[in-house]
Amino acid sequence: MNVAKENAAIAALEFVRDGMILGLGSGSTAEIFIDQLGERVAGGLKIQGIPTSARTAECAIEAGIPLVDADKVEKIDLTVDGADEVDPAFSLIKGGGACLLREKIIAHASSKMVVIVDNAKLVDTLGAFPLPIEVDPFAMALTAEKIYQALKDTGCREAQTVLRQAKDKSGPLVTDGGHWILDSKCELIPSPVETARALSQIPGVMEHGLFIDLADVIIVGEVDHAKVMELSRD
Ligand SMILES: O=C[C@H](O)[C@H](O)[C@H](O)COP(=O)(O)O
């Protein structure tokens, strides 16, 4: 167990209240949170979870967390999720686990997003972590060329893009939504807002891993404590 991730996950429990509808993120840090949340549910906490991936749904069921269909709710109170990179403006790169589309749908619909990371995820400028971009497999080469242009036009020089492969090497990794993932190594993304906007305009791009203006709280786990940083959007 990674103690820093565990400390971040435990600190996120402070944001959970009885009666909440919770977006449950994906990835190793989110899974630690789900385990912790399961213990609170066993102790009497009443919440319902909306998983952002098939894997998260399995973990939540195993942890004893009641789930609710995303189509059956009118609001989501809080989402707790991990991230691959976090910059000082709370912009994120997500999608290292290929769950970015559902994660973004749920984060966008949530009143609050709490991001839990260890301090290795904090960066001055996003881009060292290859940016995951979820694409429709149809005419993927044409979409990839448009992505390359969009990245170049917004200042990400020499972006190298690779099609993510399934772990069993059977072919391209297929997301829960039936799409493929292109990972673009940008080194630096100087204007995340512009890059996000440019990528969103490409028809074959289902979603990209830049999460802008979504995170309200970043919890950074260390070995002996967690630091909670809140951003006011007023
Ligand atoms: O698609 C996966 C997600 O965006 C994860 O939340 C992200 O990759 C961070 O995962 P981890 O907590 O395992 O580093």
Q: What is the gist of this entry?
A:
The protein has 234 residues and is α/β, with parallel strands linked by helices.
Structure description:
This protein has 234 residues and is α/β, with parallel strands linked by helices. It has two domains: 3-122 and 213-230, 3-Layer(aba) Sandwich (Rossmann fold), CATH 3.40.50.1360; 131-207, Alpha-Beta Plaits (2-Layer Sandwich). The protein has six helices and 13 strands. The chain has helices at 3-12, 28-42, 54-62, 100-108, 140-153, 192-200, and strands spanning 21-24, 48-51, 78-81, 85-86, 92-93, 113-118, 131-135, 160-163, 180-185, 205-208, 210-211, 217-221, 226-230. It has a six-stranded mixed β-sheet with strand order 2-1-3-6-12-13, sandwiched between helices. It has a four-stranded antiparallel β-sheet with strand order 8-9-7-10. Strand 1, helix 2 and strand 2 form a beta-alpha-beta unit. Helix 1 packs across helix 2. The protein is globular. The mean pLDDT is 97. Ribose-5-phosphate is lined by residues 25-30, 81-84, 94-100, 103.
Reconstruct the topology from this structure.
Blueprint: H1 3-12, E1 21-24, H2 28-42, E2 48-51, H3 54-62, E3 78-81, E4 85-86, E5 92-93, H4 100-108, E6 113-118, E7 131-135, H5 140-153, E8 160-163, E9 180-185, H6 192-200, E10 205-208, E11 210-211, E12 217-221, E13 226-230
Ribose-5-phosphate binds next to helix 2 and helix 4.
Keywords: Isomerase
EC number: 5.3.1.6
Function: Catalyzes the reversible conversion of ribose-5-phosphate to ribulose 5-phosphate.
